[in-house]
Each structure stands twice: as C-alpha cells, then as structure tokens.
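Retro notes, item 3 of 5
We never archived the inputs for the adenosine-5'-triphosphate complex last cycle. Fixing that now. Sequence and ligand:
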Amino acid sequence: MSLTFRARIPEREVEAEFELGQGRTLGITGPNGAGKSTILGVLAGLLIPASGRGTVGGRVLFDLDDAGRGTWVPPHRRGVTLMAQRPLLFPHLTVLENVAFAPRSRGLGRSAARDKAMQWLEDLSATRFADRRPEALSGGQAQRVALARALAAEPEVLLLDEPLAPVDAGGKTELRELLVRVLAGRTAVVVSHDPQDVGELAQEVLELGGR
Ligand SMILES: Nc1ncnc2c1ncn2[C@@H]1O[C@H](COP(=O)(O)OP(=O)(O)OP(=O)(O)O)[C@@H](O)[C@H]1O
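Structure as it came back at the time:
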C-alpha cells in the first residue's frame, strides 16, 4: 500500500512530509532528538499530531485541520505495526505465545494462531526459541522475535525504530540481511541514525535536521 504523511507536532518542534510508493522502504535519518521516533509514533497512532494528514492506500489514518479537528483512527484499526526501539515482548508469555498474540487478537483460534506464529518463527530462523521466555533471549534474538511478532500482525505498513541498535557488531550483518529479505516488496519505514543501515534497507530517504 502506498503511504502519504504530513504532520505538525509543535510541542516536539517536529514537522515532516513524505510520500512512499507501494512496496518501498523509506529510511528516516537525522541526529538525536530530530523527531524520527515521533514520526513513527504519529503513523502508528500512539501520538496525535496538532494537524496533518496520513493515508495508507488512500485510506485515511488521520486528517486533522489547523484546529486539530477531523479524523483520527486508533492504532488497532490502522493496519500499521510498529517494532519499537526496545523489543517490548510480553515477559510472562513464551516466544511462541508472543508471536501468536497478534493473530489471536485478530480472531484466529488458538491452534491456528500458534501455527501462524510458528511459520513466522521458521521464516526468521527462530523456532529454537519458541518455548523460551523473553528474559532468556539475547538482544539480537529478542529483536528477531519482535520482528516475527510484528510480521504476524500482517500489517499493510511496517514501522521499524532503530531495528539494528540492540545488536552487537557480529549479529548486525546477519540481522541486516534478514531485514533486507523481510522488507523486499513491503511498504515500510525504517528509522536509523546509521547511514549504512539506511542505505542498505531503504530505497528512499528522509533526512531530518537537528536543532
Ligand atoms: N515522550 C516525550 N514527551 C515529550 N517530548 C518528547 C518525548 N519523546 C521525545 N520528545 C521530544 O521530541 C523531540 C523529538 O524526539 P524523537 O524521540 O522523535 O527524536 P529521534 O530523532 O527519534 O531521536 P533519537 O535518535 O534520540 O531516538 C525531541 O525534542 C524530544 O526531546
């Protein structure tokens, strides 16, 4: 799905605009505090902008005039999934249950949701962690599981906030290759302060200035 975005968040001194074609990845880069995570928050519906408009495949996510009046669709009805900077896995659930959570909340039965979760874990070479709790995963392993969970939600747009940050140098190459494969043909926005990551993962770049 194609994506359009224009928003003003004055309390954070953030203002941005972009368009992204179907199946393409936008990389957002810029220094600390430039507003990268804020833009993802607005797209995911975690943050209400003062004004602006966002659409996915022509469907409105938010459309707010200068007085802040208009349409604002809540996060769970956007078809947009955010993989946050920290994996934020549910600590009391196993890896498999974490990944099965999204299909379950979309109404799939317990065993169908587990099958779907297992398929995503397989796709990301993470089946061996299925029965573990998140606390028993390394940073890179947790990131892989968080990615499986985001994909299991079958989003129309995938948002990734610094996906390579919690991984050490050795794991970075592997996770980067995995991300390149996952992002191929998918409409996605990836935030990173690392130009190399943006260059390898994204076809389009939005560079935010610092203040
Ligand atoms: N929860 C919050 N409440 C209020 N202001 C915030 C909050 N989070 C961020 N900000 C402010 O909003 C502005 C944009 O921050 P944001 O986190 O979007 O930047 P970023 O480019 O993602 O930075 P980083 O690379 O450090 O993650 C900054 O001035 C920041 O101080």
